[in-house]
Structures are given as structure tokens and as C-alpha cells.
Design a protein that fits this description.
Blueprint lengths: L6 E4 L3 E7 L14 E7 L1 H12 L3 E8 L7 H11 L3 E8 L5 E7 L5 E6 L8 H6 L1 H6 L2 E4 L5 H13 L3 E4 L11 H4 L3 E5 H8 L6 H13 L4 E5 L5 E5 L2 E7 L12 H15 L5 H15 L21
Helix pairs in contact: 1-9, 7-8, 9-10
């Protein structure tokens, strides 16, 4: 096992196919864009990269294709992890599926629409988790999402909880019939407005709505809930304190909001691993500020700040 890994992410790698256009097209409409590029993405990988750039020692548990399938993206992704100082000891390659891909359209105000095709990510399962068990149970923080098989995410969360490892679960993309054990296995259940809506059936368009949704998720067994609200910051709810707390963020001009939630979660994982006694509201405030830096540049991981790019008071 790689030495001293503090944050382990079990999740997805995606190749981002990004088109920039003045606005998002309507159904059946073709519009002209003004830029196209290919980048590294996937919620799991994004969160891992941001935690690593903050200074956490990280390991990624994921599945990518190998070059036998004439898919060059798998090897490229492993190199990307290495370039970011992430352990690739548990990045496994397969000949049985193509790279996960995300088709992303970003409009001139930085809003996006995304379609993902999970590909090799769905092949991550029990065998891979068993091989990564030593890393998971010796970490300080485990992070999971839903771009891989949900059963694999739940198994990883249970493995961590049983060994007193702090867990962050990001229920994205959200599924309405989420297994109830996900709530109980989450020390921090972190979702955005649309995910909170789908999971609770409550409309979430304001801080007050997010507070209500957060309390409903607490009722289902989460240790704490963070509902991210983009430019409005986030709401923190804790099982030990039934009063939701709104954590505002700084106002910035967004160039591209893709990956902002992943930047937030990666930063949060760093703070949970390195500052375990810090109040959660303060961790969320700082993670808000890291994510606010990320939205000011185009691209997903390319927009994620390094520790050296951030104010010293965030550390």
C-alpha cells in the first residue's frame, strides 16, 4: 500500500468532450459553438485531483481501459494521476469496455449541460475493492459518488465506516430510489440543489428550501448534510445540531462552473483529513472559496487551484 495516504477516492474517470457555445441548445436545435477541447474529468477523479492539489496524499480506486482495446485515454489518465501526485496503485485496466466519456456544453455565463456514458467505470466492483481494502481502511477520509456501480460505492462506504474512516458521499448523478444504507454510511452527505430535490421530493430553490431538504436527509441517518447552492454558497446541517447553517461564498464572475462541486468536495476531503478538529461550517466556508477560484477558469481539472495559488489563510 502507498505510504501515508490520507484521502482515498473510489469513483469514476471520464474523458471530457467540451463544447463552448453562446447558450445551451434547445431540443432538436443545432447551434454554432466557438471552442472545443478534450480534458480529464469524472467526479471521482476530479475530487481526487482537487484534494491532491490542496496537499493531501491521495489514492484513486478506479477502472480504465487499456490500449489493447485501442483506447488511448486509459494510459493518458493514469499519467494524469501521476502528474497530480496521486497514487495509481489501485487504478485497474480492462479490455472489456471503453473509457467513460462526458459530453459537456458550456454557455457564455458558465452554465453547463452534461451527458455521461460510464463505460469502464461500471466494471469497478467487489474484487477491485478487496484489492484496495488496505488503503481504504487505513485512510483518514474516503470519498464516493454514483458514476460507478452504486453497489461498489456502498460497499466501499461500509468498509470505511466499519474501520472508523470518515466518509464523504456525493450522490451524483442522483437516483431517486437510493438505498437507505447510503445515508447511514455517510459522515458527510454532500449534494447540490437538483440532487437534493430528486432525493427528497422537495423543491430546492432557496437557502430555506435547502435547509428543509438537508434536515430531511439528516432524518434518514446522515451524520451531516451539505447542500451546495452555487453562488449562494452552501447549507450545512448536522445530526448533533438541528439548526441548519447557511455558509455564503464570495461573489465571482464565473467562466465555467463545470466541476465546481467536485472542487468543493475535494477541498472538503483535504480539510477533513488534515484539520479533523476544525468545525464543519469552517471547512465548508473554506471549500466554498476553493470552488469559487475554480469557476473563474475554463475546463474542469485544469481550473482546479493548487495550494500555492490559494491564500495562506485557507491553510
Amino acid at each position: 500500500m502507498p505510504a501515508d495516504v490520507s484521502v482515498v477516492v473510489v469513483g469514476s474517470c471520464m474523458t471530457d468532450l467540451v463544447s463552448q457555445a453562446p447558450r445551451l441548445p434547445k431540443a432538436g436545435e443545432t447551434i454554432h459553438g466557438h471552442k472545443f477541447f478534450i480534458g480529464f474529468g469524472g467526479k471521482g477523479a476530479n475530487q481526487c485531483v482537487q484534494a491532491a492539489r490542496m496537499g493531501a496524499k491521495t489514492a484513486m480506486v478506479c477502472k480504465v481501459p487499456n490500449t489493447v482495446g485501442r483506447d488511448v485515454f486509459g494510459n493518458d489518465y493514469i499519467q494524469n494521476f501521476k502528474n497530480n501526485g496521486i497514487s495509481t496503485a489501485y487504478v485497474e485496466q480492462t479490455e472489456n469496455a471503453a473509457t467513460g466519456a462526458a459530453s459537456i456544453i458550456v454557455n457564455d455565463t458558465g452554465e453547463n449541460a452534461i451527458v455521461i456514458v460510464a463505460g469502464a467505470n461500471m466494471l469497478l466492483g467487489q474484487e477491485e475493492l478487496q484489492r484496495a481494502q488496505s488503503a481504504i481502511i487505513n485512510a483518514k477520509v474516503l470519498v464516493c459518488q454514483l458514476e460507478i456501480n452504486p453497489d461498489a460505492s456502498l460497499q466501499a462506504l461500509r468498509m470505511a465506516k466499519q474501520n472508523h474512516v470518515k466518509t464523504i458521499f456525493n450522490p451524483a448523478p442522483a437516483i431517486a430510489d437510493l438505498h437507505s444504507d447510503f445515508y447511514k454510511a455517510s459522515d458527510v452527505f454532500c449534494c447540490n440543489e437538483s440532487e437534493a430535490e430528486l432525493l427528497t421530493g422537495l423543491s430546492v430553490t432557496s437557502v430555506e428550501d435547502a435547509s428543509r431538504a438537508g434536515l430531511e436527509l439528516i432524518r434518514r441517518g446522515c451524520g451531516s448534510v451539505i447542500v451546495t447552492l452555487g453562488p449562494q454558497g452552501c447549507v450545512v446541517c448536522q445530526s448533533t445540531n438541528t439548526t441548519p447553517k447557511h455558509i455564503p461564498t464570495t461573489t465571482v464572475t464565473a467562466a465555467d462552473t463545470t466541476g465546481a462541486g467536485d472542487s468543493f468536495i475535494g477541498a472538503l476531503a483535504f480539510y477533513m483529513a488534515h484539520y479533523p478538529t476544525m468545525p464543519q461550517e469552517e471547512m465548508a466556508r473554506r471549500a466554498n472559496l476553493v470552488a469559487a477560484v475554480s469557476v473563474q477558469s475554463v475546463g474542469t481539472q485544469t481550473s482546479f487551484p493548487f495550494q500555492k495559488d490559494l491564500p495562506a489563510e485557507l491553510f
